[in-house]
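Anyone opening a protein record will find just a pair of labelled lines. The record below illustrates this layout.
***
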Amino acid sequence: MSTITVTGTDLEEGGSPFDFTAYGGHTVIYLAVPGGTAANPTMKHYRLDLHPDQSPESRDGAVQINVVPVDARGWPDPKESTSWRIGDEQAQAALARAVVFRRHQADYTYGYTGVGCNRYNCSLFAEKILKAAGVKQSSGLIFSTPLELVKNQKLPNRPQPKEAAAEAPATEPGVAPALYRVD
């Protein structure tokens, strides 16, 4: 049985709903696909992601799509990811979709929110790969975010207020606590 996993960075930071960085940093797909032969079946593992191409020769908005074989030991922590068991054919379809994306990466541009014609961000790319695997998981109705795709959470956690310092210990009436004494 094959597995597809989606993970994201900086998902626990929280923050204001108006701070784009509070919605997570980067989304990556990990895919386990059957390989080998009938006599010696194995699993091949891949890391799939899309990010802005920042090489000096790239055009503005260019994307880089990675389909990279990885060691199974590099699989993401289950607390920071979501995984689905999928059929072997679904895994092959997801890998094929990623390869087609990579082959046509010049046709796409990077958009921070993933909004626009042929504009993608890492989360929208990951949603399309999940869909090819038969997994229905949204990265967002308007803006595509790692937070929604990985945690199924629309808004970031609000930061918890810091606890106030403990009050100074009580002393006899009329005697200032040692904390406030000036001797």
Notes: DSSP finds three helices and seven strands in the chain. The chain has a mean pLDDT of 75.
